[in-house]
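Hey, can you fold this one?
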Amino acid sequence: MTSIISRPARVGLITDQTGALSFMGIANVNVAKMITDDMNAHGGLLGHPVELYVEDSATDDSVAQTAAARLVREADVDVVIGGIYSSTRQAIRRPVVDEAGKLYIYPEQYEGQESHPLIFCTGPVPAQQLDPLIPWLMKETGSRKFYLPSADYIWPHVMNKRVRDLVTAQGGEVVGEEYFPLDHMEYASVVADIMASGAEVVFNTIVPPGLTPFLAQLHDAGFSARGGQLVCTYFDENFLNLVPAEHVEGLYGCLDYYRDVRDPFSVELLNRYDARYPGSAMFTAGSACSGTYRALKLWAAAVIEAGSLDQDQVIAALDRASIPEGPGGPAEMVPGEHHVRMNMYIARSEAGTFTVVRNLGSIDPQEGQVPAG
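Sure. Predicted structure:
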């Protein structure tokens, strides 16, 4: 198709360069720079360069909202990508979607249920993480009693409801469910309750900065030593750097990619990233690197198919976009859902790294149809 782009394509990225989740955000910027540099080295999009505008959200939703407003008002970007916490997604949405009417792609694994004509999501949702993981775990370990220590915002509340439904459907029970502010740091009381409750599985949705003290206190109480299972669906190799390996030994997760995934494309991509960005900000899934990769690649595929940066045309193409290769495998938008069908993996933390214990194959997001714009 003939290009009608007469200017650079502009991508805005909002992610934490400072703050509690900077180890995630730095990796996301690395991924975006690597992909946009690759695009420009191969002629850009439809023969025009791709410009990347990066804003630091600093693990602060008000900062993210201000940064998002700058991207749409001053840089006039064609698409905004980013956000880690679900509350940050909502903060970004206000200036980008609700006020400016711009396309927004959210790359992180999350609780699902986001449904708007201008929003696409490229990370996994509960049908892809919890639905296969919880029944498998209960069968594999024989565990029946679950405890749900949680941060107090939308993602943990929605995830816990799904976990409760799955556990009870398998004949198990939730013996405790507690919520704490995001910056809460003292967990002696809930750890004591976990130990007294006879919980066999701790399904954790506490997030940094409270994550590290919680895991330390749970370990010191002897939860794992007595055979308890720790589950955290966002935990990846970057998070393993935050805590001593023994605090999360045996932890189970379910994500769209782990560094142990060994298909040829994933191996080559990881080697390229590690050579370009050696250090602690690793290419991982829970940190949204895989979702950021898919966001950029699927958006670029849509622009190419549309032959234009016209937003309506790009959205129509993005609704059915696919990429034949990516971290963890191919990916494709499910038409009408604005969420991605992708490969999923169950992994277990062993001696400070994750080992894939089950390749689940391609799983549908099972999200609802997005209303017409």
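The CA atoms of residues 120 and 259 lie 25 Å apart. Let me know if you want another pass with a different chain boundary.
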